[in-house]
Amino acid sequence: MNKQLFLFLVIAVIISSCGKPVAATQNSAPPPTSTPKILPTDTPDTPLPTVTPVCISSEPTQADIDRALGYTAETLSVSEWQQSYSVAEDRVAVTWQNSPLGAVVYLEAIIFPCSYEEPDLNQYFNDETWKGIFANYESYELVDECKSNDGLRLYEFKTVNQGYEYEIRYWVESDTDTRVISTMVVFPLETKLLLDEYSSMLFPGYSTCP
User: Fold this and answer.
1) How far apart are CA 18 and CA 108, in angstroms?
2) I want to staple 172 with a disulfide (CB 3.0 to 4.6 A). Which of 12, 21, 109, 153 is the partner?
3) Neighbouring C-alpha atoms within 13 Å toward the C-beta of 92
4) Which helix (H) or strand (E) holds 125?
5) Which residues, other chains included, contact 130 with Cβ-Cβ below 8 Å and sequence gap of 6+?
6) Is residue 106 a contact partner of residue 11, using CB atoms and an 8 Å limit?
7) What are all long-range contacts of 85-89, with beta carbons under 8 Å and residues at least 24 apart?
8) How much is the CA Rg of the chain, to the nearest whole Å?
9) Stretch 118-147: mean pLDDT, rounded?
10) 60 or 44, which is more confident?
11) Ranges of H-type helices in 46-191
């Protein structure tokens, strides 16, 4: 199988594997425990107020679509990269493919309707997520992971499929209180210099783990 045909298989695997329900990531941390206050016996107990999370719609808006389509700015030239996108219940997915280079960039703008915290991202981007994304690969290896001071996450992989070796970098950025953007860049191993170049343009200052 040539690399151009394999690009379409990569995209199909990514899209089918990355659509895990976001609701599973919205588990909040357990409430802190404390010693209850002892009330006089002649004072009735006052029930504690119930805190209900303020949630928004999980349906992407036009602003979400525009944000996803414009996220790479002018980095991926339309003359070199073919762009397509899709809209699901809780995300906008954008794919750029460059057949001559055998490369793919895949972005998801994911909506967390009830907001999220670091533990939610830890749970969402875990071993099961990687198994799903790379389910049809012959092998994959997480070779490094890191996080910048401002919270940008980066996961680096080496993969093999149909005899071809690929290097993958996968960034996760907290965009807003309810939006997360993940960006996966896939290049053949022999074009690592191009991977470095595009990574530096997309994420200057954090193109690879220190």
Assistant:
1) 9
2) 153
3) 20
4) none
5) 140, 142, 155, 157
6) yes
7) 86/15, 87/60, 88/19, 88/60, 89/58, 89/59
8) 21
9) 94
10) 60
11) 62-69, 118-124, 127-133
Cα–Cα distance list, 195 to 83, 99, 108, 172 (Å): 18, 15, 19, 17
User: Which residue's structure tokens are 């809209």?
Assistant: 87
Residue with tokens 């996080």: 147
In the numeric block, the tokens 């939006």 are attached to: 179
> Cα separation of 95 and 49, whole Å?
46
pTM strictly above 0.85: no
How far is residue 185's CA from residue 191's CA, in Å, rounded to a whole number? 12
Q: How far apart are CA 128 and CA 142, in angstroms?
A: 13
* 46-59: pLDDT as tens digits: 555 555 568 999 99
Complete DSSP assignment for 6-74:
HHHHHHHHHHHHS---GGGG-PPPPPPP-PPPPPPTTSPPPPPPPP-------SPPHHHHHHHHTTTTT
Q: Could you tell me which of 4, 8, 10, 24 has the C-alpha nearest to residue 161?
A: 10
**CA 46 to centroid of chain Cα atoms:** 44
Query: Is residue 85 within 8 Å of residue 160, measured between CB atoms?
Result: no
